[in-house]
Amino acid sequence: MTVCEYIPGLENIPAARSSISYVDGKQGILEYRGIPIEELAQKSTSLETAYLLIWGRLPSKEELATFEADIYNHRRIKYRIRDMMKCFPETGHPMDALQTSAAALGLFYARRTLNDPAYIWDAVVRLMAKIPTMVAAFKLMRKGNDPIQPRDDLDYATNFLYMLTEQVPDPIAARIFDVCLILHAEHTINASTFSAMVTSSTLTDPYAVVASAVGTLAGPLHGGANEEVIEMLNEIGSIENVRAYVEDCVTNKKKIMGFGHRVYKVKDPRATILQTLAERLFDQRGRDRIYDIAVELEKVIEEKLGHKGIYANVDFYSGLVYRKLGIPTDLFTPIFAIARVAGWLAHWREQINENRIFRPTQIYQGEHGIPYVALGDRVHRDPLVSVADDR
Ligand code: SDX
Question: Active-site residue among 178, 187, 315, 347?
Fold first, then answer.
């Protein structure tokens, strides 16, 4: 077996054959099961899109009604999981709380009957249904409050916003939030989906698969960027400071959050849609100074880095929408996770249906034939110094 050349980050290396979504990074195209994201954002709902991604086609009216009803009936979480969440430190990040509670679901449901369609359906329903409840529950419990029980009469997006605030959101806010879930649902083999696929390939349970993906999404180079964007815009503070900020980042090769993408070398089509959603919200609820800073920042970065294919990505405007909906900044990435559960589960099903465990190779660059030195004969080195040397 010949060993291929090592490509850092597996850039442009196919790791699967898939029919779930398609991205053209030069044209700025994103399709879910062949349907353009712009059409789904305009005409679909988050659960209909999740059904499309996971089961491979748009559901009939009856199929969608059954999928929605099953999810609405499974939104509550076990009191043992709630009691476990009460022990989480209030300063813990909601993504760590989500990863822990998602993995805990696996303790309550039969494991690994992956050849049983009923098990697959139940696991999809439970994860789609319970992840939003766990995100909302931690937001309240970390302050010492009881979580708000889901309401079976509210749709997916409306119920999540209700569980955050105990206020039923206005229809415009609920629809905008639902579109955000559509936009974040799937994006071919990104880092967290790749984690999900590697974990799926060992045939473990889907709760462990989602927990693995949540941990990966949390990083600032991936889903964690949306939270960092708001902090960056607040740090910039005014339109007048934007140019100097960008010039400093370029000079010091600092990554600017919400920009750049491994695949898109033009503006992420999701960023374009999210920007229109932000503007609709500002029309309804008043414009923020922070948005004007964002628009100026995008303009200056296009001028300074557009030639390198660095444009706004999905994380740049999403936070401005969530912030206007009154969602706390540290819940932005958990919301990304709520949406992406659909994509992770679609790739989980695709992986186990044509599985081969992931086991890549390496190019060894260490030494051989090193003698074992007895403990008493070893030279002492200051651990901090030696760790720095060994990097
Ligand atoms: C998501 O993969 C997906 O599909 C992910 C995602 C999804 O839906 O799942 O789309 C969601 O994760 C969006 C990305 C969110 N992350 C950020 O906004 C963090 C900031 N972005 C960067 O860290 C970066 O752009 C990445 C990680 C997103 C992509 O990095 P790559 O492809 O590894 O690019 P690179 O680091 O090799 O950079 C290439 C060049 C470098 O300059 P040179 O060394 O060639 O001179 O572009 C520069 C980089 O310095 N560059 C940036 C930059 N991103 C890349 N310079 C300034 N600011 C940036 N944001």
Answer: 315
User: Which residue among the candidates 178, 184, 205, 261 is catalytic per the annotation?
Assistant: 261
Tens digit of each residue's pLDDT (9 = 90 or more) over 105-115: 999 986 768 99
State yes or no: is 83 an active-site residue: no
pLDDT tens per residue across span 147-201:
999 999 999 999 999 999 999 999 999 999 999 999 999 999 999 999 999 999 9
For the CA of 9, the closest atom of ligand 1 is: 33
Q: What is the pTM of this model?
A: 0.96
pLDDT digits (tens, 9 = 90+) for 323-351: 999 999 999 999 999 999 999 999 999 99
Say how far apart CA 105 and CA 93 lie, in whole Å: 19
Q: What does residue 32 show for φ and ψ, rounded to 5 degrees?
A: -105, 115
Q: How far is the CA of 134 from the centre of ligand 1 (A)?
A: 30
Mark whether 307 is an active-site residue: no
**How far is Cα 103 from Cα 215, in angstroms, rounded to an integer?**
11
Q: Is the CB of 269 under 6 A from ligand 1?
A: no
